[in-house]
Design a protein that fits this description.
single chain, 278 residues, alpha/beta, Rossmann fold, six-stranded mixed beta sheet, four-stranded antiparallel beta sheet, 12 helices, 22% strand, globular, binds adenosine-5'-diphosphate, binds magnesium ion
């Protein structure tokens, strides 16, 4: 499905990603971990063509990606939607319009200028928001929502692209533990229910262990671990992060607690309410 071969990116004298090989042969949820500066973001950005590799190749379903330009590159960017730590929404625009922007990769920018969305697109956008439990916020400005809600809007915008893969670059790094859990649950559910591959850069180990089928550990631009959460021993984790401060921080921060029952029930009630309104 996805094959990354000897992928390298240098910035001047610095090598951000160093001859990385990764093969994803079936849909899965992959977590990429590593200390700050390990090359996680650069790797994802190359997958999405936000950054061009210095050398190496990316192929998806047999098609070479790295050389794509123009319309083909935009088509690929629609196929692998990206989610960022800072949400990257248009703050003063309403939520549903932010989600509808997810169609622009496929339809071009004319729609953005004229803001003419088809009724079918609007319905689909609201259905996706509903699936993420935030349809009742559809008419609000994005900036009026909490961080966790905004990240779910960003996920909705990604789903609007109907992507084959979702790439998430530290999607929960700006969120409190409860919202972090809601966002990770949403990503996991999208993989489980839709069969989409999710590749998620995560700063912390515990989240990767809990949510991902496979963990890739990066250090200084190289892949130093590639296996299941079970295979990721404490010693190996220490090697990924370096046996210093960053290890204990990575292992313990962004702790996600078990969901309390009532909170789940409240979310379900909100979702039902939103559904009734549509
Ligand atoms: N646009 C850039 N220009 C110069 N150096 C960069 C750029 N992007 C990333 N780097 C460098 O590449 C290395 C990897 O960065 P990054 O991919 O952001 O790591 P991570 O996401 O794991 O923190 C770092 O040393 C960083 O300073
Ligand atoms: Mg990063």
């Amino acid at each position: 499905m996805l094959r990354i071969e000897k992928l390298t990116k240098t910035f001047g004298a610095a090598t951000a990603v160093n001859s990385v090989n990764i093969e994803v042969s079936e849909p899965m949820m992959v977590g990429v971990i590593g200390a700050s500066g390990a090359g996680k973001s650069t790797l994802l950005r190359m997958l999405n063509l936000l950054e061009r590799p210095t050398s190496g190749a990316i192929t998806f379903e047999g098609r070479e990606i790295t050389g794509l330009g123009g319309r083909d590159a935009r088509g690929w960017q629609a196929d692998c939607a990206m989610i960022f730590q800072q949400f990257n929404l248009v703050p003063r625009m309403d939520v549903v319009s932010n989600v509808l922007h997810g169609t622009l990769f496929r339809t071009g920018t004319l729609r953005a200028l004229t803001a003419l969305w088809s009724e079918a697109d609007i319905r689909r956008a609201i259905a996706i928001l509903d699936r993420l439990g935030i349809a009742d916020h559809a008419g609000k400005r994005a900036e009026a929502l909490s961080g966790g809600q905004q990240q779910r809007v960003a996920i909705a915008r990604a789903l609007m692209q109907d992507p084959k893969m979702i790439l998430a670059d530290e999607p929960i790094a700006s969120l409190d533990p409860m919202n972090a859990q809601i966002v990770m649950d949403a990503l996991r559910r999208i993989h489980d229910e839709d069969g989409r591959t999710v590749i998620c850069n995560l700063h912390t180990l515990d989240t990767a262990r809990r949510y991902c089928d496979r963990i890739i550990g990066m250090r200084l631009g190289r892949v130093v671990f590639d296996g299941t959460p079970e295979q990721l021993t404490t010693d190996m984790a220490r090697e990924i992060y370096g046996a210093d401060e960053s290890f204990s921080e990575a292992a313990t921060s962004t702790e996600i607690r078990e969901t309390e029952g009532p909170r789940h029930a409240a979310m379900a009630a909100l979702a039902r309410e939103a559904e009734a309104r549509i």
